[in-house]
Amino acid sequence: MSTIAFAERAVHSSHLSVPEILNVMLETYRGSSDIFFSPGRPPQVEVSGNLVAAEVPGLTSLTANDTARIASELIGSNNMALEKLASDGACDLSYSVPSLSRFRVNIFTQRGSRAVVMRVIPSVIPTLETLGLPPQIGDITAVSNGLVVVSGPTASGKSYTLAALIDKINRERAYHIITIEDPIEFLHAHKKSTVHQRELHSDAPSFAHALRAALRQAPRVILVGEMRDRETIEVALEAAETGHLVLAALHTIDASKTVERLVSAFPPSDQGHVRSRLAKSFRYIVSQRLIPTKDRQGRVAAVEILKSTIRTREYVEKGESNGKSFVDAMRDGALEGMQHFDAEIERLIRSEAIDMWTGLSYATNPGNLRLQLADFQETSTSEFSS
Known about the structure:
The chain is an alpha/beta fold. It has two domains: 119 residues, Beta-Lactamase; 205 residues, Rossmann fold, CATH 3.40.50.
């Protein structure tokens, strides 16, 4: 249906269906990553990290009734999501509009009304190349067992990277792959591998429960959408120790914090043992930050890669100390495929993919990075002065 037809319909009815609203928004604002419905605001899209008001006929400013109706239509007959919303004040679900897109949806209560955030999931599974990720990340798909963690803050592209890795394995290897997600995002067709995708609440009650069941389902590869609690981390370690390749997401900001988060999930009395297990089982920790490009027309990934080596396993097991940090190991491990955030951000600044001040705001140690860029600052100042 054209935008003109939508406008004509809006004259006669103030209620466009959710698929119609989404169609207008995504046709008008291509490249949107997220969609927002909030009372007192127009429908909004996030493009290149910035919120933009979307022009939808009949919905110049959403009311609480509008967002409640949208939420209700999204939930539909999903009684489990409805119960979760009533008991916890928020629920997650997947939503699909044929021939348009799939969405990861979060509906929540705020100030007594409903609000909705929808992550747009591309219909085509991305590749590591189209995501602009370092080529050595592809080596992960050749790993036969162990734990691989992809970490980063919300909306840093973790699920995209994991989907690209699963798809690469799916295309290249004849494995049984099980994914456990909340909710399912990218749909993986059977290719060379056989892929079973399980969604929390509809297919399994929890990540830990689904993980334990997976150990009896003969997978070679297990994807864990998020390691949220100690039990899930425990079972993920067990799976990695028993010959499975476990790919998992974690909301941490870098490799060091990832190790700290995994270990600190356990009581102090168990942490020494957990460090030893993690040191033996981890293969890679990949951390991501999406940084706005210099022209503000998109975002580029800065990626930190910690790889399992004799040195890094020692640091995991014994903990970091002065001169024995993960950053030191990554800085010295370039030939082994490792890299750390600030060096990658420096590279992006020098190549003028991002501006210096934006890069510094995303750096792990802005002071040190600024010193590293002293010559670049002088060059920039000189060019500006001329």
